[in-house]
Amino acid sequence: MNKKSIKKDNAVIMSDRYLSESGVQGGKIIGEHIALGSLIIGIPLLTIGTYALLNMLFDWGFPINSAIIILVLLVIIIGLLMTIGGYNIYRTKNV
User: Fold this and answer.
1) How does DSSP classify residue 64?
2) Percent of the chain scored above 90 by pLDDT?
């Protein structure tokens, strides 16, 4: 009966010992998902914003008013920041 309680205690001690390592591994997995999500969302936003801006500049049928220009610039900025952030997280994780 003592052997069973000793095995249970060892299991608890072992899990406490590796708790910090498991937290680090969980953080790495979360960082990987954030980087991938940022790249998946950022690249299309950057592409759509650049396409809309080029259509406005060269007068290929996209309407020009100040609200749409501000919206397009915000989409470009958000897409660029998400792409840069996702790349930096991915590069830092793999170094």
Assistant:
1) -
2) 37
